Amino acid sequence: MPSERSQLLGRSGKKKWAQKIKPLRVSLAALLLLLVVGSVSINYFQGGIRRESKKKNVIFFVTDGMGPASLSLTRSFRQFRDSLDIDDILNLDKRLIGSSRTRSSNSLITDSAAGATAFSCALKSYNGAIGVNPTKDPCGTLLEAAKLNGLLTGLVVTTRITDATPAAFSSHVDYRFQEDLIAEQQLGGYPLGRMVDLMIGGGRTHFYTAADSEYGSAGSRADGRNLIKEAKKNGWSYVGNIHEFHKLQQGANVSLPLLALLADYDIPFDIDRDEAIYPSLEEEAMTAVNALSKATENSDKGFFLMIEGSRIDHAGHQNDAAAQVREVLAFDKAFEAVRKFAEQSDDETILIVTSDHETGGLVTAKQLGKDYPEYVWYPQALLNASHSGEYLSKKVLSYTGENKEEFIETSIFERDLGIVDYKRDDVKVLAELTSLGDIADKLNLMVSDRARVGWTTHGHSAVDVNIYAYANRQSVWHQVLDNLQGNHENIEIGQFMADYLDFNLTKVTELVKKTKHSPADHKIELLDNIAHHSGLLNDL
């Protein structure tokens, strides 16, 4: 295992030219060829002779809550963990083209609902808005426009499929907590009918009621409906566990439309995820990409797919640095798998990646005392942690043995977090806490302090977020750069995708304006959902 000092000093994988200089005899023709080849940005576009295809695929990635510091933290963590060269960077790092400003219509700091609506409708709205404008009128979305124009559509997440980001592309409600209504609309219960061809994620609870027990645990719908049964009757293929998911054969054996609800609520953090129970984001993403690609292979229309690294945000809200680096790594792996798919595709395909906002006010430094600042942070402390604070808080609270303090010392601190320099006060305080959130906060703070990682908030920040992109056609790549290179408002990203696909979102808005979206029509549901959310660790 490398030391922090060896990682700081680093070693470059690039060969030292001073040791490799040899006499060069380059003809003028060879030099000209080199200049031409060099003019193509091989970091972003891998050219080649491809058959011309009229269809277009757009794969839009949302790294919920991931700011620039998340990349810095994760990059250094990975280099330390795997003993890598300091120039061995993340897959995302190679695709960086710009940054995005994230404010909503009513706040300098956006929430995920307004952030996602900025992408989906290409307009600014208020915090909490799902597919509606500032006056609470439904706005046409990219996903709806795609379906209406003959493309197939999909949503892939690691949180609830009814959560803010996927909801903003596939529904219209005044307030993000209206998840029962969101689920209904996603399955086609609104004026446009079914607009989504594929949904993979969690959030099963909002599709049935407490009276239904066939799905393993009680649902939370307030209207008595079982949307899963209704969906099956209406032709949806339903997948509810990892065994059924594997039968999809990474997208080769999918019958659309597909509803895959793989968790009651959110899929666990990657640091906690049991691969025998839950798929990875990469598995979800590639199943979706392959399924949509296969379904459009004989069509001149492509697909629009939104993929979200949802729980980066949750790790930020909980100030859990150990969970966050694993979430970013899981996303980075999924992104690269999809990028390689696009690279090999004969169909024109672009990938756009950005965040709705930054979460946590993360900084890769923290001063613990009043002495002259130490310029350090310690990845080893994050590597020592084998579970998230969320997971361990449940473990602490569910303990029923006779010696809770000893359990905390040996099982939680020493084994699960690799913390051996704890104090007696740490043990006593933790043993007395009775809230999952308070326990998680205590554990996450202990890890972050030892890593010298700082947080400024449990909410969001106004930090600009990065934009990444890839295109498998040189002409399209230039189009991406012309529109997204540099610093942009978040709505410009949504508008670029609409323009690229030649969509008229105003016309779609006219079609959805009669959608029932007000909480006044669903008061019981809204109150139940707010009560449900108020006791959860995961914030907005």
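[next item in queue]
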Amino acid sequence: MPNISAAQRKKIWAMAREKGINSDLLHNIIFEISKKEHLGDLSMTEARKVIERINGERRHIQKGEPSAYVAKMSHFQKTQISNMIETIHGLGAEYTFEAISQKVAGNDPDQLTRIEAGKVATACVQIIRRLKKQNSSPSHDLPRN
């Protein structure tokens, strides 16, 4: 079956933007439906299924399958959190991705959803702010009597 045309790809992107679906989420939807990485690789049938999902039309749910689509943490989020943890280490504190994700979200890093990853990132930012404040405080360097 032939792949979709450039005009059809543009139409799908426009529909996704209209519904507030970002690039990562659209690619997740494409992969979930077709096991393909790129919009241009879709057949007409697969493109139709992607459009139905974007439009929020109901699809048949298999027994045991979750009823709602849950977006997993993006590669960008994982990289961002890892970089913040390196910053935390540079400020003199020992935190791990696993420990923070367990504490904040109750999940291992590979099981985080996008929303949970956002909460972990927010926690990392708060830790960094707290450590910078502690390290820059003048009383930090003075001996106590």
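[queue empty]
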